[in-house]
Design goal:
123 residues; globular; 5 helices; alpha+beta; 21% strand
């Protein structure tokens, strides 16, 4: 596991940004949160979590160390950057599941099943 030291100032800025992001969620993130919150899948998820001193992840299940990202149209142009980010999170010991925002909106049951499967693999 790679450990990176982050200055207290950077950590505070990241935490503030994550807090703002909790109130500026996309519709697909909000829909998925309704399915993940309250241990509905047997584990506790948190949303918009600072992680690794450099990232804010959409959803995190701490116990199984699972990161769930909801990717909208913006991510089409970020394939290389997202892959680099995923590799960094994996080096920190997390498993990353990326869900297409359209899938979340169009077929929530399928999206939830993908999260369940990732939890089972992590478990």
């Amino acid at each position: 596991m790679v450990s990176r030291r982050t200055s207290p100032h950077c950590s505070e800025l990241l935490a503030q940004r994550a807090g703002r992001m909790r109130f500026a969620v996309t519709s697909s993130e909000q829909l998925l949160w309704l399915e993940l919150r309250g241990k509905r899948l047997g584990v506790s998820f948190r949303r918009q979590v600072p992680l690794g001193g450099r990232f804010i992840v959409d959803f995190l299940a701490c116990g199984p160390r699972l990161v769930v990202e909801v990717d909208g149209g913006y991510h089409v142009r970020r394939v290389v950057a997202d892959a680099r980010r995923d590799r960094a999170l994996v080096r920190l010991g997390y498993r990353v599941l990326r869900l297409d925002a359209e899938l979340v909106v169009r077929d929530m049951a399928a999206a939830v099943e993908l999260v369940r499967a990732a939890l089972a693999e992590a478990g």
